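Practice problem 4.
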């Protein structure tokens, strides 16, 4: 077992003539920020506005399988986006600031709001008036090495008779600042340099993205459909001129090409005090990576082809029992598959790589219940219980079958003795997801020749989390937040060096 402790202090102050609006007592813990609050900052999009909310830190979400836990800490019209490749950050960039009616910051929970297991979220509320809005931009980036990278972006939305259409496209090139020019020095155990070189590296990518969404009333409820097609190609070229251990030139050329596509849908209908939400999501994600390394002593060819598919469905029921108590129950099911093929050739000889040709499948279900009780206007208690069950199989180079089951309770308490003070506490068992990339081999894409070898026989990391936070609001738009968080970790996933033939697997 490992323990981890974290503490954070955040202080935010924004000067503005517009004052944030406290909500009525029934929604204590909700502060509404109108567009006028952000006027002095000159925002262009909803993302600009979210990033300037006092006492709020934007989280775009995690890359996980399934929808639970994948969304960030921002809702749009009270709902999280049903998308993954089309990230929350990109979605907020497409919402013009003129389309925003207000942004609510919700601390501790509010009636009818799905907090997504978080203690603080923001809700972007859009204007519902009919009409069309759009924007287009063109950018050019002249680089020091003579390259000129151009990009075009356009988005628009049309709202009429309760319907909504959104379209967006991006087509253009951009630099990759993870690589650059400069000296490289590597030291040995005795402190003396064993490699001294000068690196000349260029990298760029091309985005060809099209996304869209359609909303309409249907069957006395509301249906939203969204889709995305995103092609991203990139190249990296590296010249490494060594002076130690001797004059030499090393060359590497890397081409990772990614194709992503997704379709998602959400249907919501209210039956008196009960609301029904049904979600469906399908994505395809293909990544083809080629890397060639050349030097006087080594000629290395690496090729990895990964194809990922995901199918997710979820049904959720919420019922308000009284003004003080709300119950929620639902179930999410998902099927994920990864097909990975990896080859490595060194000096003309094929090197055996562990877990190089593997298919991994996961079938997972997660039923859950949530109860939110507000015994008084200044106290909110939320209890949740989730049961995650999954079956993972691996075929190909490694044949393995594993069944997993985890109970994940959660208790969150929010106490707001005054509009300026709020205390929050959380006790929760968190269970991470096994990363499919840990099951298969991959390259570090570096001239060291180190590979990341797969290990299908893994267990997910688990943690008991104890968290406490105090928030103090001051003046008209300032906030200071102190958060203390403690983790009790088990089954931590790490890496260890393993020598395999001519290369080192990690």
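Answer key:
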């Amino acid at each position: 077992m490992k323990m981890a402790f974290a503490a954070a202090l955040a202080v935010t102050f924004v000067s503005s003539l517009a004052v944030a609006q406290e909500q009525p007592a029934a929604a204590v813990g909700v502060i509404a920020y109108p567009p006028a609050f952000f006027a002095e900052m000159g925002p262009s999009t909803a993302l600009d506005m979210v990033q300037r909310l006092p006492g709020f830190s934007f989280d775009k979400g995690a890359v996980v399988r399934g929808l639970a836990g994948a969304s960030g800490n921002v809702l749009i019209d009270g709902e999280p986006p049903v998308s993954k490749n089309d990230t929350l950050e990109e979605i907020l960039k497409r919402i013009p600031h003129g389309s925003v009616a207000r942004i609510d910051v919700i601390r501790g929970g509010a009636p009818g709001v799905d907090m997504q297991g978080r203690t603080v979220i923001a809700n972007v509320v859009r204007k519902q008036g009919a009409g069309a809005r759009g924007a287009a931009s063109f950018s050019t980036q002249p680089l020091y090495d003579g390259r000129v990278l151009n990009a075009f972006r356009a988005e628009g939305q049309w709202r009429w008779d309760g319907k909504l259409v959104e379209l967006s496209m991006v087509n253009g090139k951009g630099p990759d600042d993870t690589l650059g020019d400069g000296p490289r020095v590597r030291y040995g155990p005795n402190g003396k340099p064993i490699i001294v070189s000068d690196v000349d590296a260029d990298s760029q990518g091309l985005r060809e993205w099209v996304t869209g969404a359609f909303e309409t009333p249907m069957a006395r409820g509301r249906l939203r459909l969204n889709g995305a097609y995103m092609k991203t190609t990139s190249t990296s070229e590296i010249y490494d001129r060594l002076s130690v251990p001797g004059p030499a030139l090393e060359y590497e050329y890397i081409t990772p090409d990614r194709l992503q596509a997704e379709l998602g849908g959400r249907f919501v209908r209210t039956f008196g005090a009960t609301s029904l939400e049904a979600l469906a999501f399908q994505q395809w994600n293909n990544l083809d990576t080629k890397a060639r390394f050349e030097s006087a002593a080594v000629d290395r060819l690496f090729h990895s082809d990964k194809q990922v598919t995901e199918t997710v469905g979820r049904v959720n029921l919420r019922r308000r029992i009284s003004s003080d108590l709300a119950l929620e129950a639902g179930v999410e099911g998902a099927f994920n598959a990864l097909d990975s093929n990896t080859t490595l050739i060194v000096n003309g000889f094929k090197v055996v790589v562990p877990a190089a040709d593997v298919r991994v499948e996961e079938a997972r279900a997660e039923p859950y219940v949530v109860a939110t009780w507000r015994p008084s206007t200044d106290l909110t208690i939320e209890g949740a219980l989730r049961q995650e069950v999954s079956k993972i199989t691996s075929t190909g180079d490694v044949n393995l079958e594993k069944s997993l089951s985890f109970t994940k309770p959660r208790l969150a308490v929010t106490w707001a003795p005054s509009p300026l003070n709020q205390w929050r506490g959380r006790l929760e068992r968190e269970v991470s997801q096994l990363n499919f990339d840990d099951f298969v081999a991959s390259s570090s894409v570096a001239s060291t020749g180190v590979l990341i070898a797969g290990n299908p026989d893994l267990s997910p990391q688990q943690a008991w989390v104890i968290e406490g936070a105090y928030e103090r609001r001051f003046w008209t738009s300032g906030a200071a937040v102190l958060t203390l968080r403690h983790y009790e970790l088990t089954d931590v996933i790490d890496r260890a060096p393993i020598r395999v033939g001519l290369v080192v697997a990690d």
